[in-house]
Amino acid sequence: MGRTNVIRAASAVEIVEAAYDLSGSEAAWLRALLDVARSDLDVGSGLYAFTGDATNADPERSQVFAERALVPAFRARLLELNETAPTALFDVLRKRHVTCGGLEQVLGAGSPTVAQFRQVMAVAGVVDGFCMFAQDAQGGSVTVASPAPAPVKPSPRVRGIWQRVGLHVVAGLRLRRKLAARATRRDALLSPSGKLEDASATVADDDTARRALGDAVRAMEQARSAQVRASPERALELWRGLVAGQWSLVDHWEQGGRRYIAAYANQPGSRDPRALTASEQSVLRYVALGATNKEASYALGLSEKTVSGCVTQIMKKLRFRTRVDLAVMLDAPRAVSLDLSFAEDRLEVISVDVGAGKAIAERLTVAEHEVAEYVARGVSNARIAAARGVATSTVAKQLQTIYDKLGVSNRSQLARAVAGNEPRGAP
Predict the structure, then answer these.
(1) Which of 16, 64, 54 is nearest to 137 (CA)?
(2) Are the C-beta atoms of 35 and 259 separated by less than 8 Å?
């Protein structure tokens, strides 16, 4: 199968459907995902996938590994990559929230890890590969990859689709694991038309929840229609991984073959247990990683207005003055955004990298380091300029240089980068 180095995304809806199939074991689920994805991803050397958790996110330690037509020589050397690379490939991936693309797109053209990959895999006739990695706030992860005999560089459109598919796949994994641990429940059962047939007290007594679930079911059914599924961008715009930041929708078949849609509670966890609502905890997880309200809105399936309200409540409850203060709360030191073309719009898709890299002091001048520390403390450009005896425009230029050097794009992300290193005393 697959004799072209073009990565496609034509089967996006089918893959999402497979992601929410709760039957069988995790291994069987993973094999089914590969069966559906193969026509899009196999470029002649097969493909493989594995799942992980907060501590195990590489194929050597993963208990669940699946493959389809994987080149034997590649398979034999796969574990060697993590053992001998300058920076182990899967160590890099598990520090991201969601990422996909060819090796150079994910790691950079000058990455020593890419060079080492090509050296190790030359005997297998493999020089590149596509990788889709996604994990949730609790550390559960899914990696799907396809080695390639020639460079692969999927377009921004294709990468954008696979980013969203990845968010669905990891949501499906989280739900499977919650059900296995009896850590979730079915809150509602709806017909494909969106009519509520059965509900827990939580949903039955909440008009907003009932309406949100009904709307989501109708949108999902539209996404799965023959006309819309032919346009993966449109389909994935309609079919969100979570409904109102709380539920995943799954097919449920009754005896006699009648199909319903079941809604299961499937919120991502939070590392901060303080007095926040479930939605606020979920929003905090993304905002503290430097995400904008728009980014958090997409990842959680919430409106931007709801996310904005959550941020306001978080600030009040945790007694923070600025979003920069939030950025140093959790322990992930760094977050960046990958700007992708999606449909007719530009969409920033979250890509989290918690690797601290070189110490900030080694990458910035003394003056830039002082400015970075001021920013991490929530100090404005005007106040920094006054404290350092320079013009505000000078501080603004220094700040842009700092952003470029550290690979961040806003003050919150800079604060996380500073928090992840061992800063000198504040000036």
Answers:
(1) 54
(2) no
Q: How far is CA 61 from CA 50, 54, 368, in A?
A: 10, 12, 41
Q: Cα 115 vs. chain centroid, distance in angstroms? A: 26
**Tens digit of each residue's pLDDT (9 = 90 or more) over 192-251:** 999 999 999 989 999 999 999 999 999 999 999 999 999 999 998 889 878 887 899 999
In which residue are the tokens 């990959």 written?
Answer: 117
Domain with CATH 1.10.10.10 in the chain: 278-335, 360-419
pTM greater than 0.85 (yes/no):
no
User: 400: how many CB neighbours lie within 10 A of its CB?
Assistant: 10
- Containing 157, the helix (H) or strand (E) segment is helix 156-180
Q: For residue 336, what are the β-bridge partners?
A: 351
Architecture of domain 278-335 in this structure? Orthogonal Bundle (1.10)
Residues in the chain: 427
**Residue among 101, 99, 120 at smallest CA distance from 109:** 101
- Taking each helix axis from N to C terminus, what angle separates 26-41 and 12-19, rounded to the nearest 10 degrees? 180
Please report where in the chains the tokens 């992980």 appear, as a residue: 52
The CATH number of 360-419 is 1.10.10.10
Where do we find the tokens 């001021």?
374
- pLDDT tens digits along 271-294: 444 467 878 878 887 776 566 787
Question: Tokens in use for 137?
Answer: 């706030």
